[in-house]
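lol ok so funny story. i was supposed to be doing the assay writeup but got distracted and ended up predicting the structure for this chain instead. priorities right. anyway since i did it might as well share w the group, maybe its usefull for someone
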Amino acid sequence: MLEFIRERAQGWFAWVLALFITIPFALWGIHQYQTTDAEVNVAVVNGKKISDAEFQRAYQQQRERIKAMMGKDFNPSVIDNKQLKKQVLENLINREVLVQGAHDAGLRMSAVRVGTEIRAIPNLQTKGQFDPKMYQRLLRSQGLSVGVFEKMVSNDLVIQQLNQGVSGSAFVTKSELDTLLRIKLQQRDIGYALLPVSSYIGNATVDDEAVDKFYQDNPDRFRTPEKVSVNYLDLSVDGLAKDIQVTEDAVRERYQEHAADFTTPEERHARHILIQVPSDASPEKVETAEKKAEDILARIRKGESFAELAKKYSQDPGSAKEGGDLGFFGRGVMDKAFEKAAFALKVGEVSDPVRTTFGFHLIKLEGVRGGERKPFEQVRAQLEHDLKRQKAEDKFYSEAETLSNVTFEHPDNLTEASQELHIPIQSTGFFSRDGGVGIASNPKVRKAAFSDDVLQDGKNSEAIELTQDHVVVVHLKEHKPAALRPLNDVRDEIRQLLRVEAAKSKAKELGDEFVSRIKKGEDAAAVAAQFKVKWERPGYIGREDAKVNPQIRDAAFHLIPAADSKPVFDGQALSSGDFAIYGLYAVKDGDPASADKKTVESLKTSLERDHGLDVFKAYVDALRSQMKIESYPDKL
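and the output, tada:
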């Protein structure tokens, strides 16, 4: 959607913008957007209150964003909640500062542009097309009015407009770009040798006493986790739907009842020219604006290009530069008067001036699509599936209630509920608190299985909602307590582990000796030969050269060249356990003139973006200094 995010969402600004432009992408948790006097406020910006409820939503959204980015590696303990809360509060304050700053600068967003952005929100589309019914349904579910939501989107867009104006003023000098190119394209003449850990494993000896000690000192490494298996009853809409039969007549009847669902919504592609006039303007100003629109219309009637006139005269900042092009839109999006006029036109026709709350519009219809109904046979399978699912949903909610009640009334078994609902008792394999397969892959199931009620008291769990239309109830089948694996079972494993560690230590010991000797002036190749390895001289390499181990290459580019141009040496253990010894012989800066166009443009874009972020951050700081800001972090 907003190109602004894709182009600039990095670094400091990405962290801030993650909270600035969230509304078009998430239609949840925002029903308390406007504060009330009864709410606790965490900040006030020039009299505009930021409520604790608003903060909590932003905080939870940011946590979810971090969780999504980290995926399976997410660990709540790595999040510094205090710091995160502070950052979220600052971001909310900055957002309000920017909204007020944009409005003070006279930046406004037309209803047409707001409507265009809303239509592009994926969560408001069905099969790639804006769905007005879905839009209304989602807003109602969040307790939002169209006006409030459009105001939120409008604020996001004026922030975008403000950012583009401020950060777009940043520029990169040729000298600055050339300096960075010289560094980026720099090449280094290096040498290196590798002491492989595998060479020393064979000579590493580990006695029984060392194995015993390691076992005693690290019991958690050899402990099998506590595990359980459970019996369970599984109730889902999909499962119920498989056993439901529907007649051909019922399917055809549904086709007739839901004809609109299989009719592609008619959409219209239009251009417009907007002559702005406030809704409360004086009659004289209204007359002047209308006369200007009529004059432009006369020129269009005489054959002048609508698009070119839109670029020159339209006062809609979102579409003027595109020749007034609004793309395709359906009903329920535009201003009512605008929509009525657009849907009354034939392709190629231009409307008379149309008055809306924003002024006078001239509308040209460029194209029409949609409005066709799909034939029955094409949608029959979908109709049958939907009909079965509808009947299954009706059945599901009553049976889910029965499942919950019966398993509660008979807490020591699943048999009663199984017989009453005619669903089989199933079983899982063993799983731990941290993971499992099947239903045990769901953390809710694992939490219930290891709860005191199920694990200690032998009771049924409560009905666990895996999804809105899928519930399970679990009952303990078997429990395996955590246990320390016998020493004899892990002795060989420990011995091998200690041999590898001993080999790594030996490689490091010899590597340190190697580095020490060549730093004192011994010939690197000769020393390498004594260690029965080869001193490699690949010559000049670049920062992304693939012919050298990346860890060695990166380490060589971190070496600081000697002032007297003598070789510089160092060494380090690699992630593999091998020990690398490397040296820097010479440095050759890159030639900016030899850089390919793609590299230059990429680097220039990156620098401009970084400068733009710095300029925009300074602008935000300047705005903040002019506003009265009160924050209450102790209320977080």
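Residues 376-409 form the longest helix (34 residues). The radius of gyration is 34 Å.
back to the writeup now i swear
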